[in-house]
Each structure stands twice: as structure tokens, then as C-alpha cells.
Amino acid sequence: MYRDAVTQPSRLLPLLLALSGCTKPSAATTPPAAQTAETGPQVPDDAIALVDDQPVPRRGFDEALARYAGSGPASRDDRGLQQRVLVAALTGALVQRELAALQLGDAAQLEQRVAPLRAALALVATPTGNAALPSWWARPPLSDEDHTAAIAVAAAIAGEQVPEDAIAAAYQAQGDRWSSDSPWVRVDVWTLRYDDDVGVDACDEYVAKYRRCTESMPAATRPTVLADLSRQAGAWRAAAQDAERAPMVATECEAAATEAMQSTQPLGCDWGSDAGAAEKRARATMRGNTRATAEQARARLAAGEALLALAQGAAQVQPRHLLTLDELPKKAAKAVRNAKPGTTTAAIDDGHAWIVLRVIESHGKGALPLEAAREDVAAELRTARVADALAQLPETLRARHRVELHPALQDIDAARGETAH
Prior knowledge:
421 residues
């Protein structure tokens, strides 16, 4: 599917080489819009659609196609790529209309409102990565601000309140989940991963060799490729922990390696020899480079700063996370076992990431009553509802508005259900 051209580093290479100056894509052309007397306002040729009779500019659509296609296999004539970008561009315009109706125009307030949901959604694994970035998402043409707006609109559609009977039913259905032989602790968790280990041999081999290959790429494009490699590794890591998806992970990584070998031939990358030693050196370097960031996060949490204010860059945050001590890495469990509420741990190295914990409350071992678990059950139910609303946002919003596509794009749009969510 076309999302792979965006999410897999090997398919990003032609794009990034193009952006670095190797290739300049040609300008897009659009057939003239059809004119009829009966259909009302017509879509101008500099727009992709009319939404409630207001034009959606075509420029972002064309620029996105040019960036994604570059000079590689993701051709601008690929109807699937066009469909994906069209869905994203049109949904972005619909989201802005919904946002205006919700009177959520203040960017700072909107970000503050959405940040906890984004953090929760990012922890829900999906086949395309996580629930915060649904399969219809395409950047470009969408921006970070569009992302925030889309989550806000999805949350409004899902609704704020979770019925008490639904919370009680979920608590009862989860049964043994709320009983443990280990003590319970509620903590703010700040995590910064410094390696890309997946835990699947084929995937770890691919990641190591691809990272080594990036040394042959233009310096200007290397950070983008490495960041995308980390995101892909994270998606595979999450999939490997899912019993239903785990059997396919190795196959996906092997396919990615085959494709990467072909797409990186012009760079002369070494895909034959082992890259384990190089990966160990890269891990050690990243561990050292990220230590100062972890120490800064620890100091800010100890000073009482809100956890969500530290959700920057590659760091992940889990506000008010409830878990048992045996669910924590051993070093982290030892650090909070007897800690009083308000205590902030030192930056802990678990072998893969830096972790900082701030203790909020503790409970003894055994069954956790509904009163103690209510916050978590309600949050999970709400997150699931928002995730569903976000995944289905393109179709939901199109049903709420009058949308007329430019005639040149109507055939492309006809099969949008295959990629919309």
C-alpha cells in the first residue's frame, strides 16, 4: 500500500535524494474543469475540491505528490499515491471547518487540550505504527498543526464522557488484570529510547545495515532517514509484541531489506557483511548523546513541571500511569518500591532507553478496587473511542459536508475506502 512508501526508509531514499538536489520533479498538469449549468458552482482548476462551496487549493496536493514521488518508484502517475494524498488534503480542509465550528482557534490552548490524547494514542499500536497517526495521514500535505486539529475533532466526535456503567462493565470484564501479587504504583513516566532494537533477528539485521547505509547518503537528508528508520523500528517492535501480528514481522523486515538493497544500489551500500559491531557503536553513541536530555528531564520533573511539557522530540510520556512493580524494569522497580508520593527518580538506563519516574501514589499488592482503577479504565475506553474516530475521520467528515471534487480527481477518489482508514 502507499503508506509503505511514506513509512519505510528504503522508499524514502529516492524522495530525499530528490530533495537534496539530485532530481527536480516536473510540474503537475490538470485538465480543465467541466462546466455545466445545472450543478451549481464549479471547482476551479487551482483547487482540488469545493467544500461547502469553498475551494480547497490544489497547491498543497501538487507539492505533496512532487515530494513523495521524487525520482523513484513512487511515480506521480501512481493513482494510489494520488488517492492517499487527496484523502489527506481533503480531510485537512474538512478538519479546519470542524475546528472553526468548535471555536478552538487558539493554537496554544488547542495544543494543551490535545497533548494528553496524543500521548495516549501514540501508545496504541496499529499496523501502520500507532493510533495517533492513522493510515490516511500524509505529511505533506498535512502539518503538525493539522495533526493537532485532527485529534481535537476526533475527540469531539468521540465525546468527552464515558458512562459509569461502561467503566464498571470494563473493569469486571478485565478480571484478573486488576489483581496482582506485586504492589501497585501510579507514576508519571518519561522515556527516551536510544536504540532501535526490534527483538526480531531479520528486523534488527535490516535496521543495522540500513543505518550503516545512511553513511553514504547526503548529510542533509540523513537525519530524516534515520528518524524514519526509528519510527519503522518502533512499529515493528510493537507488532512483534502482538500475538496476531508477530508471525508476519520477520517477513515484512525481509521484504524491506530486499527492497532497500535494490533502491540503495547507486550508493554502493554493503548489504552482505554483518553490521552488528557498527550498530553497537551507534547505540553507545546515542546513549551518551541522550544522557544529558534525560538528566534535564529529571530536573524539570523534580521541580514540579507538568509531564506533558516534556513530550518533545523522540521522548515519550505516560501521565499518571498505573502499573505493578513487576511490570517495570528491575532498576526502575527498585527506585520506586519504597518511594513516597512526589519522589522523582534519577535517570535510569534499562539497556534500551533512559527512564525517569515521578511517583504519584502507591497501593499494596492484591486486588485493586474499582475506585483506584476507575481513572485508567475510563481513559482506555476514551482513547479507544478517539482512536476509532480518528481512523474514520475522512469518511465521517465527508458525510457532514458538501464536497465536490475537481472532475480530474473524481476517478481517483472513487476507491478511497481502500486507503481512507
